[in-house]
Amino acid sequence: MVMSNSLFSSSVLGTSVVSQVPENHILRPLEATDYRKGFMDCLSNLTVTGQVSEQMFQESFEEMQRTGCYFIIVVEDLSTGKIVASGTLLVEQKFLRECGRVGHIEDIVVAKGQQGKRFGKTIVKQLLEVANATGCYKTILDCNEDNVAFYEKCGMEKKSVQMALYAPNAVRK
């Protein structure tokens, strides 16, 4: 059973970033009702989402809510009621650095036709503020070479190398 409609408390959102979204838009935590507002359609602009039913969405939402370490923010276009951008911060508890925390930024996406409104940069800046508010000693992300300049504009720096191994039956795009 869902404890709240929001994935997490909006109290961790920085007001300076939230106020930067254009008129008729709102930046907020993912809500249990966002499946019907086109969240999966927005996410599909990033990569393969597969067939996700509303029930699957709800079950994943509730699991993420229970763990308390998922911070998915969305931008909703209030005039259409549709989700037009999203990003995720996953907070990992470590034993390193005196049991510190590391933030992992994932799934930054802006729907087609919504680019150029600075939603991507706004979401990344907001996720960095959430990482700080939740005590992360560093925040990292993986991206394609083509996106390095964008993330540098968001205050991040290029570091290390990413490695990946996909499961044999994984759907890739």
Provide the domain count.
1
Q: Provide the CATH architecture.
A: 3-Layer(aba) Sandwich
Which CATH first-tier class would you pick? Answer: Alpha Beta
Helix content: 25-40%
CATH superfamily, please? Gcn5-related N-acetyltransferase (GNAT)
From the N-terminal CA to the C-terminal CA, the straight-line distance is 33 Å
Per the CATH scheme, the topology name is Aminopeptidase
Structural class: alpha+beta
**Percent strand:** 15-25%
How many beta-strand elements?
Answer: 5
Tell me about this structure.
The chain contains six helices and five strands. The protein is α+β, with helices and mostly antiparallel strands. Strand 2 (70-77) and strand 3 (82-93) form a beta hairpin. It is an enzyme of class 2 (transferase). Pathway: Nucleotide-sugar biosynthesis; UDP-N-acetyl-alpha-D-glucosamine biosynthesis; N-acetyl-alpha-D-glucosamine 1-phosphate from alpha-D-glucosamine 6-phosphate (route I): step 1/2. It catalyses: D-glucosamine 6-phosphate + acetyl-CoA = N-acetyl-D-glucosamine 6-phosphate + CoA + H(+).
Topology of helices and strands:
Elements: H1 15-18, E1 25-29, H2 39-43, H3 54-67, E2 70-77, E3 82-93, H4 96-99, E4 101-110, H5 119-133, E5 136-141, H6 148-153
Parallel strand pairs: 4-5
Antiparallel strand pairs: 1-2, 2-3, 3-4
